[in-house]
Predict the 3D structure of the following.
Amino acid sequence: MPTHQDDETLDALLARVRACRICAAHLPLGPRPVLQAGSGARILLASQAPGRKVHASGIPFDDASGERLRAWLGVTPAQFYDRQCFAILPMGFCYPGKGRSGDLPPRPECAPAWRAPLLARLPRLRLTLVIGQYALAWHVPDAPRNLTDAVRDWRRDGTHDGPRTLVLPHPSPRNNGWFKRNPWFEAELLPLLRARVAEALARTSPTQGGGIPPARE
């Protein structure tokens, strides 16, 4: 079982995460943990689990959802895939398989095994972006359980320089109906989101190599 070793480096921990097999018997395509993190990361993306396309490429948000998300954030792919800018930690690191109405939920073994030690090694986070019900339950346990209400409640975590945590709907094209029913999201929340992202990254410059997406297999 994974253990929390206080003196373990982030890179050593990431190597153990990428070798994880704790839920292999339940994964239809087998284990392939997909995540990104650097000790200097300023923004945490707490999402659900990789989809089939991301499982194939090994690159987080390497799909239409990722294109929309980067547009929301106002960042380039180079910034997004710089691990000293963004830590991308879904609640489940492996593709969980297909359900009746979309992908299955993240495997329940993943977050208890790895999330606390990974977050403990990200001391420079300035903004957390929470995507989906499972990330919401973990990161904002006292938020409204209805996702629309939780997204609307963006002022709840306000500080003198703005909210430290923002809840977002999933950027999947499957949610296009939600975006049409909730035009306030684009009109009110996206400008704030882009401003908070820009502020969080203001003192961060892209690293050489560390954030470049891995080669496709």
Remarks:
- The longest strand covers residues 127-131.
- The two ends are 28 Å apart (CA to CA).
- The chain has one domain: 10-201.
- Residues 184-201 form the longest helix (18 residues).
